[in-house]
Amino acid sequence: MQSKMLSNIRNFDWRQNIVYIAFIAVLIYFSITLGDQGFLTQGNILNIFRQTAMISIMAVAMTFVISAAEIDLSVGSTAALAAITTALTMQAGLGLIVAIIVGLATGLLIGFINGLLVTKIAIPSFLVTLAMMMIARGLAMWISGTAAIPILNENFIFLFGAGNVFGIPILLIWTLVIVVIGQFLLRKTVFGRQTLATGGNDVASTYSGININRIKLSVFMGAGLMAAIAGMLYAGRLQAGRFTFGEGDELSVIAAVILGGTSLFGGVGTVVGTVIGSIMIGTINNALILQGLDVSQQQVVQGVIIILAVAFGRKSKK
């Protein structure tokens, strides 16, 4: 019994589980240092989930993109544009359902264009999505006139941000639903296995009969769709559409994915790890605010986290 336990300890992959170990360490450290400031109170914990919900949702989709050995830098700008188109649709009096459809269609269209340029014209995804990041942000500024578009529809506000169901924030419910769907797709479906295979070796995948272009197009459309949902959650929580939504989110999203154990080089992905990475980043940001650090200092810490995330991503590929 003891020898089996020692064998399990020796065979334990510390690198693969580093995000869970780090998350526990972060919780213990801030619980001790911020115990008198309400760090572990129910209100603050729920606040962390609210603050990280949009990042977590986009990160789930980004897990598929990076697992397929691609990247999407446009998710933050897509979220902003979807929030604006949704708000403008409601402002025009077209109703809740039409507004939701328009918002989702905005994200799907951007994802489709990204995927089409990557798969059909063979432009590297880094360049395609970098350009799309600027295009989507510019469109959001243009059609909104750089002004906030107020949202007055109470049903939208409840469903996409401010609602609570049996005391559980609607943002947390959205996150849980997306995580469960993402985990199922990645681990239990042919699509998930083909996504990992595409990222692991696209040539071998092609010879084995996988349509890698279809897979890549699908993951980019998924990223656009989740970014649109995140944008509507931003809009519902703040009761307005703003072109500033999602600024810098792409970096936090990518950091969460890589920190969670998904390989930056494709072929390895974990949805659960991604969400833990996202929550850990949100927890650190929350704790830094409680400690009185300003935004500039928080950005320094986020930069360090991204470097560490990429470093662990490199190690996991060797």
From TrEMBL:
<dbReference type="InterPro" id="IPR001851">
    <property type="entry name" value="ABC_transp_permease"/>
</dbReference>
<feature type="transmembrane region" description="Helical">
    <location>
        <begin position="215"/>
        <end position="235"/>
    </location>
</feature>
<dbReference type="Pfam" id="PF02653">
    <property type="entry name" value="BPD_transp_2"/>
</dbReference>
<keyword id="KW-1003">Cell membrane</keyword>
<feature type="transmembrane region" description="Helical">
    <location>
        <begin position="256"/>
        <end position="284"/>
    </location>
</feature>
<dbReference type="GO" id="GO:0005886">
    <property type="term" value="C:plasma membrane"/>
</dbReference>
<feature type="transmembrane region" description="Helical">
    <location>
        <begin position="156"/>
        <end position="186"/>
    </location>
</feature>
<feature type="transmembrane region" description="Helical">
    <location>
        <begin position="92"/>
        <end position="115"/>
    </location>
</feature>
<protein>
    <submittedName>
        <fullName>Inositol transport system permease protein</fullName>
    </submittedName>
</protein>
<feature type="transmembrane region" description="Helical">
    <location>
        <begin position="12"/>
        <end position="32"/>
    </location>
</feature>
<keyword id="KW-1133">Transmembrane helix</keyword>
<keyword id="KW-0812">Transmembrane</keyword>
<feature type="transmembrane region" description="Helical">
    <location>
        <begin position="52"/>
        <end position="71"/>
    </location>
</feature>
<feature type="transmembrane region" description="Helical">
    <location>
        <begin position="121"/>
        <end position="144"/>
    </location>
</feature>
<keyword id="KW-0472">Membrane</keyword>
<dbReference type="GO" id="GO:0022857">
    <property type="term" value="F:transmembrane transporter activity"/>
</dbReference>
